[in-house]
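Q: Given only this backbone (258 positions), what sequence would you predict?
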């Protein structure tokens, strides 16, 4: 059912047709990009669930054996992400292997990763954010090193990705936020650190975990509105002034008073 929904939106991006959806644009943009790069021309109608794709090249967006492409690839990344996260937290190889084994044979994870859905994309960024956060915590003994900056910045990138796919990504923002508050509180109680050093820690987290995700999230919408420049089913949700900028709309290039 959802494949007809998000596959159609991937086609809208390829055809540059404006639409409106309750979710932020990143997931659908990535689906459209995967389809475009793999040769899909955006002509499949996605009218009802179960329609045969026939000659349409859909595997780039979906991921069907032996074509382990976009959604299937992101879904398969969850296994090493989970393995590395548990290994970092527990320092136990058996625990990490058990986690990976459970995910490999999880029917729900396998099923979600086979179709053109937002779920594997969302889970990729969610687990990426958790892994990056855990890796950054492990670098706490060498703050402001290259690896510390890398994992902290990557956490911010993954936060932007999670929110940019679905707003449920805010839950991982909450998790990282609580972890950051705990870290800063711990640093504030460390009497061997000067307030200047504490201020650097604070500003580094503001830069990587607030400003960077906000900038990336805003950039997603900038790309979204730049690409979708043709009239489509989402026109009516926006103002007349906005509709006048869409090619093919009845109001295109019409002078609209304030």
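A: Predicted residues:
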């Amino acid at each position: 059912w959802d494949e007809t929904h998000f596959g159609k939106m991937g086609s809208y991006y390829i055809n540059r047709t404006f639409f409106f959806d309750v979710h932020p644009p990143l997931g659908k943009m990535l689906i459209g990009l995967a389809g475009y790069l793999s040769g899909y021309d955006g002509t499949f109608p996605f009218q009802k669930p179960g329609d045969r794709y026939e000659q349409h090249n859909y595997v780039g967006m979906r991921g069907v054996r032996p074509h382990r492409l976009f959604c299937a690839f992101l879904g398969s990344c969850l296994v090493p992400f989970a393995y590395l996260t548990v290994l970092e937290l527990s320092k136990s190889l058996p625990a990490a292997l058990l986690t990976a084994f459970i995910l490999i044979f999880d029917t729900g994870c396998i099923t979600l990763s086979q179709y053109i859905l937002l779920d594997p994309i969302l889970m990729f960024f969610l687990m990426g954010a958790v892994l990056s956060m855990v890796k950054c915590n492990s670098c706490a003994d060498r703050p402001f090193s290259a690896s510390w900056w890398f994992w902290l910045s990557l956490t911010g990138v993954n936060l932007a990705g999670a929110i940019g796919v679905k707003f449920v990504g805010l839950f991982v923002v909450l998790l990282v936020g609580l972890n950051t508050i705990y870290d800063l509180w711990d640093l504030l109680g460390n009497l061997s650190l000067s307030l200047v050093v504490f201020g650097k820690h604070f500003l580094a987290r503001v830069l990587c975990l607030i400003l960077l995700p906000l900038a990336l999230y805003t950039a997603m919408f900038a790309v979204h509105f730049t690409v979708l420049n043709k009239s489509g089913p989402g026109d009516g949700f926006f103002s007349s002034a906005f509709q006048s900028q869409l090619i093919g709309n009845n109001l295109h290039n019409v002078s609209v008073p304030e």
